[in-house]
């Protein structure tokens, strides 16, 4: 069956959806009925999609096209109104991560999807990785032994232009509405969501304790260098330590500490390392998984809106915690000029890794800039 879809948000990550839609159209599994954005369609997409209906208002586009699925890949603070429009129109919803910038908005979207009797998938791509699935199998089978904890670290770098990309960049709120564009809640959101999913702790009440240490190196409202540690109701300790101020960037790694074996999941690369032996796996995208689910309901959604409760609790805690502390210049280094300026925390690459290895916070590790 060929499903009809509309896409809200054609730039930024929306460009990834445009590429995927092009491939899925060739397969005959979907047809793009229309596009929505507040800006014109990007020139690279004009040759293929320039003849499709285009509107700056999603509700109007939905009324004209009546699609099976609406994809919302827009700024975080617009997810609720656009998601609401899609669900109230009776569409299945493919919603980019994070699903909502607050617990109240997440609950509303979850309730709306239930009331409408439609599916809502959240775009946590890592949960469609074969490497993730295999690691979950090994954990469930006891192959790794008793799980002593899960740690994740990530070290990326961003220049000043990153925080000028949009009015909501680096903000906790915009015009009185929550945004939650911090390192833990947006660029590294997959780290927390993946760790919680591996533990089978995805519900709001599945978190027993939660603590955070939030820092920043720029004049922004959100964190860019942070760690969190939580304990699930199952008793699993999970730490996530990340930075956007690394001099030497590296892809994130999730470490499962087992009493018998240690496993590393490089979730952006679909690589699983068990006992030092790496294996690369394939991946099923959230959109394809949603289409498979609609065609065959026993196929489970990778990340339903209902299964984002624990992640949203983390997001809510981070976004409502005291403002991230600005690090003193003595711990920082810089290069570049103007919008190309990059700011680094000295030794932060080692700090985030040590947090994941030892399941410890920056303060417990004795990092001088965290004191």
TrEMBL record:
Keywords: Oxidoreductase
Protein's UniProt keywords contain Methyltransferase: no
Domain Gfo/Idh/MocA-like oxidoreductase N-terminal: 5-124
Record-linked Pfam families: GFO_IDH_MocA
Gene3D superfamilies, per the entry: Dihydrodipicolinate Reductase, domain 2, NAD(P)-binding Rossmann-like Domain
Protein name according to UniProt: Gfo/Idh/MocA family oxidoreductase
Organism: Streptomyces ziwulingensis
């Amino acid at each position: 069956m060929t499903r009809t879809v509309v896409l809200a948000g054609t730039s930024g990550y929306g460009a990834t959806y445009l590429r995927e839609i092009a491939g899925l159209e060739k397969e005959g599994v979907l047809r793009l009925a229309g596009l929505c954005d507040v800006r014109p369609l990007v020139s690279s997409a004009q040759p293929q999609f320039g003849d499709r209906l285009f509107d700056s208002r999603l509700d109007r586009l939905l009324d004209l096209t009546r699609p099976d699925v609406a994809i919302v890949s827009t700024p975080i603070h617009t997810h609720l109104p656009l998601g609401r429009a899609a669900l109230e129109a009776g569409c299945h919803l493919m919603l980019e991560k994070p699903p909502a910038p607050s617990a109240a908005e997440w609950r509303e979207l979850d309730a709306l999807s239930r009331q409408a009797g439609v599916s809502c998938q959240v775009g946590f791509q890592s949960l469609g990785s074969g490497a993730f699935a295999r690691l979950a199998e090994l954990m469930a089978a006891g192959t790794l032994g008793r799980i002593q904890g899960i740690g994740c670290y990530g070290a990326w770098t961003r220049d000043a232009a990153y925080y000028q990309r949009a009015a909501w960049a680096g903000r906790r709120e915009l015009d009185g509405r929550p945004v939650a564009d911090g390192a833990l809640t947006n660029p590294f959101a997959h780290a927390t969501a993946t760790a919680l999913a591996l533990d089978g702790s995805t519900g709001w009440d599945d978190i027993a304790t939660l603590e955070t240490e939030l820092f920043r190196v720029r004049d922004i409202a959100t964190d860019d260098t942070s760690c969190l540690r939580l304990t699930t109701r199952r008793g699993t300790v999970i730490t996530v330590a990340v930075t956007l101020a690394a001099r030497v960037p590296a892809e994130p790694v999730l470490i499962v500490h087992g009493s018998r074996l240690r496993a590393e999941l490089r979730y952006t690369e679909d690589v699983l390392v068990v006992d030092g032996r790496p294996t690369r796996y394939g991946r099923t995208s959230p959109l394809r998984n949603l289409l498979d689910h609609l065609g065959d309901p026993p196929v489970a959604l990778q990340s339903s809106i209902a299964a984002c409760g624990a992640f949203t609790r983390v997001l809510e805690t981070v976004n409502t915690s005291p403002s991230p502390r600005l690090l003193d210049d003595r711990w920082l280094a810089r290069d570049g000029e103007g919008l190309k300026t990059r700011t680094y925390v000295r030794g932060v690459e080692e700090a985030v890794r040590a947090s994941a290895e030892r399941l410890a916070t920056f303060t417990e590790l004795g990092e001088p800039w965290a004191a």
